[in-house]
Amino acid sequence: MIRKGLGLALVVACSTAAADYSAHPKAGELLETLRSKYAFDVEALQATREALIDAKRVDKLIKQERNAPERTWTWFDYRPIHVNPKNIANGQAFVRQHQARFDAAEARWGVPGAVVAAIMGAETKYGGYTGPHRILDSLATQGFDHPTRTPFFFNELVEFFVLCQELGMDPRAPKGSYAGAMGLSQFMPSNYRRLAVDFDNSGHVDLWDVDDAIGSTANYLVHYRGAGKGWQRGEPVAVPAQLTEPMPQWAKTNTKFPSSTVGELTRLGFRPSIPLDDDMPAGIIALEIEPGRTAYWIGLQNFYALMSYNPRTFYAMSVFELSEAIASHDSP
Q1: Which tops the pLDDT comparison, 268 or 331?
Q2: CA 121, 125, 131: angle at the middle one, nearest 5?
Q3: Under DSSP, is residue 74 helix (H, G, I), strand (E, B) or coil?
Q4: First-last CA distance in the chain
Q5: How far apart are CA 313 and CA 287, in angstroms?
Q6: Which CATH code is given to the segment(s) 13-66+130-191?
């Protein structure tokens, strides 16, 4: 019989263990990519090897990634995680505290401050919880050992080492989410390198800094999918709709991109609550607001810009509803 203390030690050892990822079969590919594509010299490659030796395999992170609530919960259970009185009140206070920077970001990128704040509220509770896991461990575990998404996380591990080299940061130091996301608005390394901005003009980009996180989040929503495909200044996000006819079985709902236009959806029997131009890209959002009862919305381009942040309908809708509540200035 295993003693209680020894049993606990074995469980911990199995969930978090030294892996020496420098000996992994794909480690050579990673190092060669850093050498040939990103011009890592001998010293930088050796530092990378040392970081891989130090990396820990944390199996629970894979489980967390595969069982994220926006993938596995119902809408009526998921929504209160983000849209709740405390998150609304804290979001309103956060916007007031940093009003000048939110206004500057909206003037530059066209993204309302409440939307940027809502993303931070959903991601890290406005910076109160940016994640306890070493990014090195998160990305090494998932980049080398994830059962289905190894290519994605392996690329992010490469980008992480490049980011650390560019910022002069020890790869063992930064902490974040189980998936390897960082800062107040939880950027993956590739997006940190591509879309983060120095919004406070300090000379470096720091997504744990509120100003840089505000500007970077707005920049992300506008530019993630390329020119003209991101956030559109002054346009609505999603509009409630009444379905006046039976929806065809072939009609697509909750897609990652607009699957139709407003005019086409109107001809299917969807009646938006406000007038919309027929040629606007659009999609059908169907949400079970309680067991057996579905509400419909017409999602517009700005809704799909939110989905570029996290490609789940539940996530984008909860951010939208949180932003509306923050912007209302009503008591939650």
Answers
A1: 268
A2: 120
A3: coil
A4: 54
A5: 9
A6: 1.10.8.350
Q: What is the pLDDT of residues 24-51, one digit of tens each?
A: 999 999 999 999 999 999 999 999 999 9
Q: What is the dihedral of CA 67, 69, 70, 74, to 10 degrees?
A: 120
pTM for the model? 0.91
Q: How far apart are CA 177 and CA 149, in angstroms?
A: 16
Going from N- to C-terminal start, the domains of the chain cover 13-66+130-191, 238-299
pLDDT-derived band at 313, boundaries 50, 70, 90: very high
d(CA 297, CA 4): 53
Q: Are 117 and 99 in contact (CB under 8 A)?
A: no
pLDDT digit string (tens) for 184-199? Answer: 999 999 999 999 999 9
Helix (H, G, I), strand (E, B) or coil at 222: helix
Calculate the CA 70 to chain-centre distance.
11
Catalytic residue ranges: 123
pLDDT at 63: 87
DSSP character string of 140-158 = HHHHHH-SS-HHHHHHHHH
* Beta bridge mates, 243: 270
